[in-house]
Write a structure and sequence with these properties.
single chain; mainly alpha
C-alpha cells in the first residue's frame, strides 16, 4: 500500500512539473481590430473623465 501511495505521489509531482504549456489561439484580424478598438475606447473614456473631473475655474 505504501508503494502505491509513493508511486501516485511521484506521478502527481511529475505531472505538475511537466504540465503542457497552454498556447493561445492565433488572433484573427477581426479580433485584433476589436481588441484595439476597445483599448482605444477605454483610453478615450479615461481622458474624458479626467477632463470632466478638473475644476471648472481652471479652464477660465
Amino acid at each position: 500500500m505504501l508503494r502505491d501511495q509513493s508511486s501516485d505521489r511521484a506521478k502527481r509531482e511529475a505531472n505538475k512539473a511537466f504540465k503542457p504549456v497552454k498556447t493561445q489561439k492565433p488572433i484573427n484580424d477581426y479580433a485584433k481590430d476589436q481588441h484595439s478598438f476597445n483599448e482605444n475606447r477605454e483610453r478615450l473614456k479615461a481622458e474624458r473623465l479626467a477632463r470632466e473631473a478638473e475644476p471648472k475655474d481652471r479652464s477660465k
